[in-house]
Structures are given as structure tokens and as C-alpha cells.
Amino acid sequence: MPILAQATAKGLSAIAVLRVSGSDLSASLLARLAWSLEPRRASLKTLRAPSGEAIDQVLAVFFPAPHSFTGEDVLELHTHGSPALIAWAMEALLDYGKPEGMRLAKPGEFSERAFLNARLDLAQAEAIADLIAASTRLQAKAALASLQGEFSKQVHQHLEAVQHMRLLVEAALDFPEEPVESLSEWGLDEAFDQAIASMRRQLPAWKQGAQRQQGLSLALIGPPNAGKSSLLNAFAGEELALVDAEPGTTRDRITQRFEWAGQLIEMTDTAGIRDASQAGRIELRGMERSWESAQHAQAVILVISLEDLKPQADLRALMAEASSYAMAWWKTYGLPSPDQKIDTPTLVVLNKIDLLGQAPTQQSHQVLQATWPVFAVSAKEAQGLEALMEAVLKQLVDEGQSNEPVWARLRHVKALERAMAHLELAQDHWTTSTGQADLMAEELRLAQQALAEIVGAWSDEDLLGAIFGRFCIGK
Questions:
Q1: For residues 232, 235, 238 and 244, what is the CA-based torsion angle, rounded to 10 degrees?
Q2: What pTM, to 2 d.p., does this model score?
Q3: DSSP for residue 119
Q4: How many angstroms separate the CA atoms of 260 and 386, rounded?
Q5: d(Cα 397, Cα 262) in Å, to the nearest integer?
Q6: Minimal CB count within 10 Å: which of 37, 137, 208, 409?
Q7: CA angle at residue 31 from 26 to 34, to 5 degrees?
Q8: Strand pairing of 216-221 and 263-269?
Q9: CA dihedral (66, 68, 71, 77) positive or negative
Q10: Of 401, 325, 316, nearest in space to 353 by CA
Q11: Would you tell me the crossing angle of helices 437-455 and 122-133 to the nearest 10 degrees?
Q12: Of 5 and 236, more confident
């Protein structure tokens, strides 16, 4: 059944692209349009309604199967971008396609057909959606590399290694006259070591890719009037959160996403936390939401103000005092309720050092050995922000990861971890229970299945529906 969609964004625009995919369009749709199109060559045509009335002059491009995005016949029409004209053109195309039952496409249906027709694998299909949604250059670069097959190549290398091991073990099961110990002579020991080591090397980069694709979540917490809102505004580059000298200005959380060194950051400013007996009903609710944000964030940044410390001219002494103040504050307010499990802060920020009349130095970024790292910044003057964010990223991103963009999703990371776990169990069966080839075979099968889920070599309909259902219509 042919499908139709507007592939460009809805709304007024210079041009719009309408896309049709189906079987044998040249003998059906193109014949009814009375068009003769040379494959993969743009042609200027007049699109007419079934009544014969001219709708628009369009640029038509025909891609015959199987050399098209979906693997079916694909017709693309470039029309003018009037919403009324586009609706008219789509209505006419649906009328022309009635004998074949042409309908409007569902979200992601073009990419799903491309996957089902083996034009791309599941990882490449997902990369299309992420390329469209990319908000940083690194995200776009990594998604494009995956669309071109770089990520899938890694997965298939792991699959081939596991399939080779399954072949050896299944051979031992099929030919019982051969002793199981012969598997060592056939290279099973080296195959296990190499496959597991290869996955372990790539896992950190995959995790980093998933982090880059999803973004890192940071929560700013601390006492009222510490400058949390000013810090969010400084990183975002605009005044998103209301800032005032009066404590308690922020009553609810405010979240902003921005790019920093190629990494997508999601930073949440929260209401100040203080003695609950002195807070009103609305402020108490805001404090509860502050802890909810901290509970779900990947990093918690405790912000305190220079104004809350004893007046001192020496910045290093102030940082030492800030460390003690932060520990005392966390001891008092850091355990809101038994059911909320929150790790200790990732680091402490000493804000408003512009009141000292001096900028932060390299020494002011050193870690105080006894407690959390303390960083001196001025949100008002945008000083010390770079060193602060570098420290946060260093703690969240595993050391040894490549700076080259790697694309991955969380489901891919989980699948690789499952595959590693099954391989390690299979290796344990081999090293501790020689002769249990049937147990090894089952673990290797599960490892292969986990890897195959990544590229869609094995999947179920529910998984496909969840993946393609998040695509935009027309893709």
C-alpha cells in the first residue's frame, strides 16, 4: 500500500517536500498523473487535481525500486510552501492513489520500510532520528557516522566473533566423538579473551555516546540567595531565571538545555533550601521539588555564597571555610527523607567572589583533599565557569574515552553489557566446568541475541513499534 507524507516541517515556507513510497508507482500514480519521469532526474511538472485544475508547478524526482531510501518506488514533489496549497496537493495525490489504497504515513514509516527492505539496519534507522534531532555538532557528527554504517560495523564485528565461538561449541555438541577439550586446540580460549576485551574497550565510548545523545543532567541546590539562578543564567547566556537580592525568589525548578564543549547539558535551578519551620506552604513545596531534581540528576552542585562566610581577604582561606560550611549545611539539610536516596554533591561552588574584587585563579580550582572539590566562581561576572564545567564533565565522563564522536543509545549500551555478561558466563562454564558445552552454547546464543537486537537482526514487533513511533512524520 502506498504511503504519503509531507517530509518538511509544517507551516509557511519557501518550499515543501511531499514524499510517496509504494510498489510500482510508475504504472499507477505516475500514469494517472500523465507524467513520464527519468529516474533520479528532477523534472518541472504541473500538478493537477483529478478534475484537471492546476494546483502548482512542482519539481518531481522519481526513485525506482530498489534504489531508493525505502527500497520501494519513491516519488518526491517539491512544491511551494503555502499550507493551503500543500493540503490541496496531498488531497489530490490521495485521490490518485485510491485504487491502491494510498494513505497518510505514520511517524517513522518511511524509515521502517527502509529497515524492513534491508536498505539500512536498525541502528542506522535510529541514527536518522537522532541526526534530525541533533542539537550539537558532535551529536550530528556522531549520528551521521552511524547512518553511514560506522557504528553498525562495530556491532557486526562482535556478532561475527560470537557466531564463530557458537560454531566451535555447536560442532562439539554435534560430534560427541570429539573430546570437548579439543575446543582449546580450535582457538576457543583466544576467541573468548579477544571478544570480551574488544567489548570492554568499546563500552566506555558507547556510554559516552549515549550521554552525548541524551545530555547530562545537573541540579543546582543550596541555601536561598546563594546565586543558583544567576549561575544558570550565566551558563545559558540569557536571563531565564528571575534574580533578586530577596531570598526565596525561586519557588519552582527551572530547567535549561545548552551545549558545552560539544556536550548537551540539562541544568536545573532549584528553590533554596532552609529551615522548614520558617518556610511557607508554597516554599515547602518548592523545596520538595528541589530534592526531587537532585535525586534524578547525574550531578548535584551545591552552591553557597561568599556572603554566608566570615569576611576574609584570602581566597584560599575562604575556600577552606566554604568546604566546612558545605559539610555542615549538607549534614543539616542533605537528608530530606528516608525514602529519598541522594548521593553527596559532585562538587561545591563558592559563588559571588566578585565581591572580593579579584578573579579566580588556577589555585582556586584545586581540590581540597578532606572534602568535596570546591570551585570559586562569579556568576555575575561569568568568571570560573569554564573550570567548573570541565570538572563536572571530568567526573561524569569515564576517563580514557575518545574525543571522537561515537553515537549510541542507552538501549545499545544495555545490550552490549548483556552480551558481555553472557560471554563471561560462557567463559566461566568453559574454564570451571570443562565439558559443559550445552551451557556454553546457551550463553553464546543469548550473547548473540543481545547484539543482534542492536542492528535489528533479531527483534520483536513491540521493539520496532517503540523505536519508529518516535520518528517524525515523513521520515
A1: 30
A2: 0.61
A3: S
A4: 9
A5: 13
A6: 137
A7: 125
A8: parallel
A9: negative
A10: 316
A11: 40
A12: 5
pLDDT tens digits, one per residue of 335-384:
555 455 566 678 888 998 888 876 665 555 554 544 678 888 888 888 88
- In degrees and rounded to multiples of 5, residue 304 shows phi and psi of -125, 160
**CA distances for 16 relative to 43, 80, 84, 103, angstroms:** 16, 6, 12, 19
H-helix segments, 148-254 = 150-174, 182-185, 188-214, 228-236
Q: What is the pLDDT of residue 194?
A: 92
- As a 3-state breakdown, the chain gives helix, strand, coil percent values, each rounded to 5, of 50, 15, 35
User: Given CA atoms 443, 446, 452, 454 in this order, what sign does their dihedral have?
Assistant: negative
Going by their DSSP bridges, the two strands 103-104 and 216-221 should be labelled as unpaired
Q: Give 429's contacts (C-beta < 8 A, 6+ positions apart).
A: 436, 439, 440, 443
Cell reading at 267: 541544568
Contact 271, 290 (CB under 8 A): yes
Residue for cell digits 560454531?
167
pLDDT band at 471 (very low <50, low <70, confident <90, very high): low
Contacts of 20 (CB under 8 A, 6+ apart): 2, 3, 4, 29, 74, 75, 76, 77, 93, 97, 102
Give the residue from 206, 211, 247, 256 showing the smallest Cα distance to 227.
247
Question: How many Å apart are CA 40 and CA 28, to the nearest integer?
Answer: 18
